[in-house]
Write a structure and sequence with these properties.
With 137 residues, this protein is mostly helical. The chain has one domain. Helix content is 77%, strand content 0%. The mean pLDDT is 84.
Amino acid sequence: MRGLRGAEAGRPIAGVLVDIARNAQDLLRSEIQLAQSEVRDRLLDSRPAGVLLAVGAAAALLGALFLLLALLFALRRVMPAWAAAGCITALLAVTATVALTTAVRRFRASPPLFKSREGSDEGAKETAAWTKRPATR
C-alpha cells in the first residue's frame, strides 16, 4: 500500500467496494438524467412539426368528409337522399373491408415481433443437453 496516504491506507476492502457502488449509482443516475434531458430537448424541438402534422391530418380528414358530403349532394340529384347515403355507406364499407383484409394478411405474413413460446421447449432441451456434457480442458 505504498501509493496510499493517510486515512486511505487503512481502509477496509468493504468500504472501498461500497464507495465504488455509490459512484456507479451516481454515474448511472447522471446518465439517466442526461438521457432524459436530451429526449426532452428533442421533443421540444420537434413540437412545431408535431403541431403542423396534427393540423394537416385534421384538415385532410375534414376535406375527406366534405368530399363525401359533396358526393352525397351530387347523388341526391339523381336518386332519393336515403339511396344516395346508402350508396356512399356501401362504398365506404367495401373500401374498409378491402383495406382491413389486406392489412390482416400482411400482418400475418410479416415476421412476429416477439418469438413465441412454441420453440422454447427445444431451446431448454438443447441447453440441458449441453450442460450435461463433460467439460474438456
